[in-house]
From TrEMBL:
<comment type="subunit">
    <text>Homotrimer.</text>
</comment>
<feature type="transmembrane region" description="Helical">
    <location>
        <begin position="20"/>
        <end position="46"/>
    </location>
</feature>
<feature type="compositionally biased region" description="Basic and acidic residues">
    <location>
        <begin position="101"/>
        <end position="126"/>
    </location>
</feature>
<keyword id="KW-0735">Signal-anchor</keyword>
<dbReference type="InterPro" id="IPR008983">
    <property type="entry name" value="Tumour_necrosis_fac-like_dom"/>
</dbReference>
<dbReference type="Pfam" id="PF00229">
    <property type="entry name" value="TNF"/>
</dbReference>
<keyword id="KW-0812">Transmembrane</keyword>
<keyword id="KW-1133">Transmembrane helix</keyword>
<keyword id="KW-1015">Disulfide bond</keyword>
<comment type="similarity">
    <text>Belongs to the tumor necrosis factor family.</text>
</comment>
<comment type="function">
    <text>Cytokine that acts as a ligand to CD40/TNFRSF5. Costimulates T-cell proliferation and cytokine production. Involved in immunoglobulin class switching.</text>
</comment>
<keyword id="KW-0325">Glycoprotein</keyword>
<keyword id="KW-0202">Cytokine</keyword>
<feature type="region of interest" description="Disordered">
    <location>
        <begin position="99"/>
        <end position="126"/>
    </location>
</feature>
<protein>
    <recommendedName>
        <fullName>CD40 ligand</fullName>
    </recommendedName>
</protein>
<dbReference type="InterPro" id="IPR006052">
    <property type="entry name" value="TNF_dom"/>
</dbReference>
<keyword id="KW-0472">Membrane</keyword>
Length: 272
């Protein structure tokens, strides 16, 4: 017996809910945005990290170079065959010349740690600014001594300049900065016709390891007046190139004849 043919009914197509599709698209969008932001932040972090690593490597190279310079200054380092001390020191001198200008003297090496170097650099900049505001100069008045002295003594006054880059020690003026200086002095003295030798004023450059160097010399013959004391004066000055730490002083043939009245005897120096 033949059964009647009935075609199979098509299955109904499953339809996705619009709300589910919308949520999926929102999630996908948020994921893509978060992924993009994370990638950008990671790139920024990586870039900053690389900059710090380059800076650390640069500082490490500078530190190693300074350690080599410091070692080359010792007797042990100069004997070492692993270091080319001549080349290292020459390179360090070239760096100093580029940084501070050419110097006629051999630069003095001073090794410092990183933070100390920055601190000293700030101090140097402050000192330069102060120097621009205040000239480097000193003016002293004669200080009377009860006995004959080989180096005339001086004292500061309230109206005269005294810069911190010029110091006074035992009758001598010491400069703390190299350069051209004008040095001057006037000495008034009491004389009479009985004295035979002329009264002489000297300005010397003090050299502790050798004979002092004469910079200026002035002399005056004694007065022919019959007075017990006839006042006269000698003044001299000149421009000289001084190094850091140089000291100058004044001397006369007979310090007991010097007149110390205000404004008559003085000693000074100023940087050009």
């Amino acid at each position: 017996m033949n059964e009647p043919y009935s075609p199979t009914a098509p299955r109904p197509m499953s339809s996705t809910s619009p709300s589910t599709m919308k949520m999926f698209m929102c999630f996908l969008t948020v994921f893509i945005v978060a992924q993009t932001i994370g990638t950008v932040l990671f790139c920024l972090y990586l870039h900053m990290k690389m900059d710090k690593m380059e800076e650390a490597l640069s500082l490490n190279e500078d530190y190693v170079f300074l350690r080599k310079v410091q070692k080359c200054q010792t007797a042990e380092g100069q004997k070492s065959t692993l270091l080319d001390c001549d080349k290292i020191l020459r390179g360090f001198q070239d760096l100093q010349c580029k940084d501070g200008g050419a110097s006629k003297e051999r630069p003095k090496f001073e090794m410092q740690k990183g933070h100390e170097h920055s601190h000293s650099k700030g101090k140097n900049e402050t000192a330069v600014a102060a120097e621009r505001r205040q000239p480097i100069a000193a003016h002293l008045a004669g200080a009377k001594s009860s006995k004959a002295v080989s180096v005339l003594e001086w004292r500061t006054t309230g109206y005269a300049p005294m810069n911190s880059l010029i110091s006074y020690q035992d009758g001598k003026l010491k400069v703390e900065k190299a350069g051209l200086y004008y040095i001057y002095s006037q000495v008034s003295f009491c004389t009479n016709a009985k004295a035979s030798a002329p009264f002489t004023l000297y300005i010397y450059l003090y050299l502790p390891m050798e004979d002092d160097r004469l910079l200026l010399k002035g002399l005056d013959t004694h007065s022919t007046s019959r007075a017990v004391c006839d006042f006269q004066s000698i003044r001299e000055g000149g421009v000289f190139e001084l190094r850091e730490g140089d000291m100058v002083f004044v001397n006369v043939t007979d310090s007991t004849l010097v007149n110390y009245s205000p404004g008559s005897t003085y000693f000074g120096i100023f940087k050009l």
